């Protein structure tokens, strides 16, 4: 089943042209990329299934080719390739925005960027956003991986990478696979340890952001830095 099988007022393409892209739901925008559904399921239903399967757009942005292949109707290479290309473009576009302006000119964009990159991982990841003197992003590096409950972070390695990038400041980040974004005492202690280590090489810690699917917590905004 394709768009032509849908009622005229329910077709995403016509709706987009007449009312603009912002009028479309996530599933409708995704359906425009997919173009056709599968036997017994129209394209909008297939789009909704993908969003539910991978936890919305944020989860879909982290989905690889093999994960998509497991969904009925996505086994062919054409649909998967086009969708993966669009998702990668979205990630790169957000990264470019953070490289062009100071991260705290758009704090929500920083949180969204981190959610997209590490928020849906099933294991704990510790990442660092390295910033230049104008607080624009130089690079995002995933530095340490752990289990579902803990990760080992080595301050010396964070300092080494900061020197490598000639960073003036950093934003620390990690995910909580459990879904809770409240910092633990260990999180707060680690933040202060890294802050002291980086201060020795004149690199400021601007924030430590904890993310999970669709959620984020900023220690700086809560006065914990």
TrEMBL record:
Residues of the MPN domain: 103-225
Listed InterPro entries: MPN, RadC_JAB, RuvA_2-like, UPF0758, UPF0758_CS, UPF0758_N
PROSITE patterns linked to this entry: MPN, UPF0758
A GO BP entry: proteolysis
A Pfam family hit: UPF0758_N
Domain of life: Bacteria
Keywords assigned: Hydrolase, Metal-binding, Metalloprotease, Protease, Zinc
Molecular functions (GO terms): metal ion binding; metallopeptidase activity
CDD domains membership: MPN_DUF2466
Transferase in keyword set: no
Stored NCBIfam families: PRK00024.1, radc
Family: Belongs to the UPF0758 family.
Protein name per Swiss-Prot or TrEMBL: JAB domain-containing protein
Lineage: Bacteria, Pseudomonadati, Pseudomonadota, Betaproteobacteria, Burkholderiales
